[in-house]
Amino acid sequence: MSREIIHTDAAPAAIGPYSQAVRAGEFVYISGQIPLDPASGELVGADMQSQIARVFDNLAAVAEAAGGSLADAVRIAIYLTDLGHFGLVNEMMAQYLSEPYPSRAALGVAALPKGAAVEMDAVLHLPRAG
């Protein structure tokens, strides 16, 4: 199976030796996104709502570059340094996605890159037209 690397300037550049996303067959695997502004590469927002929104916006930008959208997500993983924000993530997820919702995991972690409070990755199902 061939792999296709997905990249967009509308989402932050990778901050390590990885791709923003990789397409393998009908699936697109989007790397973890933290609340980085794509233009500056800096963390955004002092408040958690702004950070969660930026993460969803970054995921959406990569999904679009792959030829899809967050509606194509079949799996999302959420990493939080404070699980007290779990309810806010749920509220905001409902603003970015609609039913049927993808499968999901939410994990509490000790730390995230660049001191971020939230990170998410996603898997999209994007069958090629044929």
Short description:
This protein is α+β, with helices and mostly antiparallel strands and 130 residues long. Helix content is 22%, strand content 28%.
Shape: globular
Q: If helices are DSSP runs of H or I spanning 4 or more residues, what is the number of helices?
A: 2
Helix-strand category: alpha+beta
Q: List the uncertain runs.
A: none
Q: What's the average pLDDT?
A: 96
Q: Level of helix content?
A: 10-25%
Major beta sheet, strand line-up: 1-2-3-6-4-5
Rg measurement, Å: 14 Å
Distance between the termini: 17 Å
How much beta, percentage-wise? Answer: 25-35%
User: How many beta-strand segments?
Assistant: 6
How would you sum up the major sheet?
6 strands, mixed
What does this structure look like?
By secondary structure, the chain is of the alpha+beta class. 22% of the residues lie in helices and 28% in strands. Strands 1-2-3-6-4-5 form a six-stranded mixed sheet, with helices on one face. Strand 2 and strand 3 (27-33) form a beta hairpin. Helix 1 (48-65) runs parallel beside helix 2 (86-96). The mean pLDDT is 96.
